[in-house]
Here is the input.
Amino acid sequence: MLVLFDIDDTLIDHTSAVETGVAALHAELGAPSDRSVFHEQWVAAMREHFPLYLRGELTYEEQRRARMRQTVDANLSDADADDLFQHYFRAYENAWSSFPDVLACLAAVSSHTLGIISNGNGVEQRAKLARTGIADRFQHVFISNDCGHAKPDAKIFHLACHSAGCREQDAVYVGDFYEVDALGARGAGLTGIWLDRQSLRRPDHAPPVIRGLSELPALIRSFDLREAQ
Here is the structure.
């Protein structure tokens, strides 16, 4: 079986790292607004502009500048926006860490072929895996910026499966976004597993759903047993 993972907020605690980066930027700016308000504005800008980058409507640098201008000052020059973003990014990068349940989970499912499918910049996403010491656990890594397709497009899921020599029906994908990760994978013919770390599940959220990666090995074993019957 091919077991594929998302990176941000699945393996790596992206949300906490963002909070650290935003706090550093807020302090650097001496921003008059409350830090929680500033953080909400930053996240809103990220949700608005990062998808434009994934769709090819903005470059990676342009979406960073757009986020900085929306959050800090609409009149920032490119150079000033880049400088401020680097201040944020250094703190964000230094805060990268894997969730406590990651290493045990990867060890427990290591008899399977493991891989990554992640949206984002290839250099940055691969650096997260290397920095947290888990890069060598994965035989296949597919980042949207590198392969030209972004989740939930079925093409990135198909590319991962075909490159691993695996049928889609013999692959599972684990991610923290229900629509993009679980439904995207299911639409491509894989078993899409939603990692609901925040306990957000509603009645219309179809299984399989896990609340932490500690639940994944048993779920994978149940799939193995089902296939053996």
